[in-house]
C-alpha cells in the first residue's frame, strides 16, 4: 500500500503557484476534460478585456495617441465594460482586435514592466481574440496555462506517480487568502 503525501503550494500572489498546479494536472492527472477546458472560456474573455483596458488606461498617462482616430470611440466603449464574461461578444472582440492592431496601443505595450504592470499572457490573448470569439471555441491546454485568475479558496488534485501518491493543494497568495494557509 502506498503512502499519500501532501504538497502545499505557498507563495505571494502572481508567483506561479496556480500555473504549477495546472501543469501538474496536465502532466500527472490526465489533463483537463472538455467540460473543464470550456470552463476557462469566461476567464479568457475576462483576461482579454482587462488587459486591453490596462493598455487603454495607460495611453494618456504615457502621452500616446491612437493611430486610427476611430479607435478613440472603441477605447471609450471597451473602457466602460465590466471585466466579466457577460460583456464578451463578437463586437467586443472586433473592437479589441482593432485596438490591439493600433500603433499607439502597441507603443504603450512597449512600456509594460517599466511604467505599468500587464499580465505576461496579454500578448498571447490579445493577438488571438478572433479565435476566442468563435461560437464553438474550446480553450486549448496552452490557453488554460496562460489564463490568469486570482485563486480564492483551496484547489486540490490527486496525483499518482508509480508508487508515489500525493495530493497537491493550491491556495490563494493574496494577503486576504493567507489565513487559509
Entry keywords:
single chain; 181 residues; alpha+beta; three-stranded mixed beta sheet; 46% helix; elongated
Question: What's the helix-strand series?
Answer: EHHHHHHHHHEE
Whole-number average pLDDT? Answer: 86
Proportion of strand residues: 5-15%
Residue windows where pLDDT falls under 50 for at least 5 positions? none
- How many distinct helices? 9
**Spatial strand sequence of the major β-sheet:** 1-3-2
Could you estimate the helical fraction of the residues in percent?
Answer: 40-55%
DSSP strand count: 3
Strand count, sense and barrel status of the largest sheet are: 3 strands, mixed
Shape designation: elongated
Cα-atom radius of gyration: 19 Å
N→C terminal distance: 29 Å
Structural class category: alpha+beta
